[in-house]
């Protein structure tokens, strides 16, 4: 039986009203302390008709927190801010998962009290990131993590997940993509370790599995999702055999009865800043995963529906369309014209280009 984007779907113990999910997108409105404000509350509340909202990437530990204005979930104040977000989304009848991450090699030392960034191996990411003055700055060479630091990071993910549930969230998504800490362990282009966390695919997946196991032990597997970006090349990350790597990881995760697996891969034939020359492998992973499978990456209503019809996805996560169309579900359902997002305001302060986009009833 094929489903439409508007068909309900069960996710863990939750009954979701549609299969149009809001993808995680950094919006940089949480200030220097990473605390969600009333403006952030309004932003997510406006988009609560999504079947599921997955929040922007949220740091689990100060040493993994280095994107200006991005949120955290490692202080009481951050937790209190997120509690208001969860309450507002639930009041509107929505469901919300928090994406949790550690930036690892993508943090500049100025954000972490002069310490070096940490990663699987001392390999600098390619490209630049804004410093505290907004100036694009080259990534630094990270320190290879010690086993003690790895254990600390695992615990940080578990503690962050517990905080998210305490704040009222329906679950968390472990961010294992986009070249951040977990991804730096997974891929052999960035993992050159010769201990139990490096070398073979099994070893390179060890950190991911330890994180997921710790988080599921803390809050329950039915409240945990995982996100991969298996073929993207953001910040120069790569792997010699992503199909083998991510098939292995997916088979293992499938056994755990998680809430979902979320794959970020640009649609075939599309170009964006993360595109690599590696063929898409999401269809391979879908065959290996027994649970709810979410697909994301430059998708629109037509090709998103096509994935549901052919069974290559169970739900579709839309990113940029949700920025300019808080009522995206209504607009897709009624085939009304979509507004275009203003890219100049993606990462700026304030409400402009954040909460100022109109719903259909305001037009």
What topology emerges from the helices and strands here?
Blueprint (H helix, E strand, L loop, with lengths): L8 E3 L2 E3 L3 E3 L15 H9 L5 E3 L3 E2 L16 H16 L4 E6 L16 E2 L8 E3 L5 E3 L4 E2 L2 H20 L4 E5 L5 H6 L14 H4 L1 H14 L4 E5 L13 H14 L4 E5 L17 H7 L4 E4 L4 H10 L4 E4 L1 H5 L3 H7 L29
Parallel strand pairs: 3-4, 3-15, 4-6, 5-6, 6-11, 7-10, 11-12, 12-13, 13-14, 14-15
Antiparallel strand pairs: 1-2, 8-9
Description:
This protein has helices at 38-46, 76-91, 147-166, 181-186, 201-204, 206-219, 242-255, 282-288, 301-310, 320-324, 328-334, and strands at residues 9-11, 14-16, 20-22, 52-54, 58-59, 96-101, 118-119, 128-130, 136-138, 143-144, 171-175, 224-228, 260-264, 293-296, 315-318. It is 31% helix and 15% strand. It is built from eleven helices and 15 strands. Helix 1 runs parallel beside helix 2 and helix 3 (147-166) runs parallel beside helix 6. The chain is an alpha/beta fold and 363 residues long. The chain has one domain: Aldolase class I (TIM Barrel). It is globular. An eight-stranded parallel beta barrel has the order 3-4-6-11-12-13-14-15, surrounded by five helices.
């Amino acid at each position: 039986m094929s489903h439409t984007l508007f068909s309900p779907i069960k996710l863990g113990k939750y009954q979701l009203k549609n299969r149009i999910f809001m993808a995680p997108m950094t919006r940089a409105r949480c200030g220097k302390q990473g605390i969600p404000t009333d403006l952030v509350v309004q932003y997510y509340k406006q988009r609560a008709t999504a079947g599921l909202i997955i929040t922007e990437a949220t740091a689990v530990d100060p040493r993994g927190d280095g994107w200006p204005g991005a949120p955290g979930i490692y202080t009481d104040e951050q937790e209190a801010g997120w509690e208001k977000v969860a309450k507002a989304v639930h009041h509107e009848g929505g469901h919300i998962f928090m994406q949790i991450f550690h930036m690892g090699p993508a943090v500049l030392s100025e954000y972490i009290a002069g310490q070096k960034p940490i990663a699987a191996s001392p390999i600098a990411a390619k490209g630049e990131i804004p410093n505290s003055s907004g100036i694009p700055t080259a990534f630094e060479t990270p320190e290879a993590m010690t086993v003690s630091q790895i254990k600390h990071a695992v615990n940080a993910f578990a503690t962050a997940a517990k905080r998210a549930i305490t704040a009222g969230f329906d679950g968390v998504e472990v961010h294992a993509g986009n070249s951040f800490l977990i991804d730096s362990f997974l891929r052999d282009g960035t993992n050159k370790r010769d201990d139990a966390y490096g070398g073979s695919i099994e070893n390179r997946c060890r950190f991911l599995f330890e994180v997921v196991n710790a988080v599921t032990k803390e809050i329950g597997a039915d409240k945990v999702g995982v996100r991969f970006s298996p073929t993207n090349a953001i910040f120069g990350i790569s792997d010699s055999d992503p199909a083998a790597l991510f098939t292995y990881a997916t088979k293992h995760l499938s056994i755990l009865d998680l809430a979902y697996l979320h794959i970020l891969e640009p649609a075939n034939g599309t170009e964006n800043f993360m595109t690599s020359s590696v063929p898409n492998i999401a269809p391979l992973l879908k065959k290996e995963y027994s649970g709810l499978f979410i697909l994301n990456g430059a998708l629109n209503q037509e090709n998103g529906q096509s994935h549901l019809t052919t069974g290559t996805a169970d739900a579709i996560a839309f990113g940029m369309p949700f920025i300019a169309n808080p009522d995206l579900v209504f607009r897709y359902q009624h085939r009304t014209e979509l507004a275009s997002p203003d890219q100049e305001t993606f990462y700026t302060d304030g409400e402009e280009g954040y909460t100022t986009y109109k719903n259909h009833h305001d037009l």
